Amino acid sequence: MIIPVRCFTCGKVVADKWEEFKKEVSKGENPAKVLDSLGIKRYCCRRMFLSHVELIDESLKFHVHGKEEGKI
Amino acid sequence: MDVEVLGTTNDQLRLLVREIEPTFMSAIRRIIMAEVPIPAIDKVYIAENTGVLYDEMLAHRLGLIPLKGGETLTLPEKCSCDKKGCNLCESVLTLEVEAKEDNSIVYSGRLKAEGSVFPANNEIPIVKLNSGQKVALVAHARLGLGKEHAKWQPVSACVVKYEPVISIDSKKCELRAVCVEECPKKILAVKGKNLAVTSIWDCSLCKVCEEVCPNSAIRVSYNDRNSELIVETTGSLSTEELVLAACEVLLHKCEDLKNSIKDLPEAS
Amino acid sequence: MAHYLCEKCGKVIDSNELLGLPGIRCPSCGHRILYKARSQIVHEIKSH
Question: Is A46 part of a structural domain of the chain?
Answer without folding.
Answer: yes
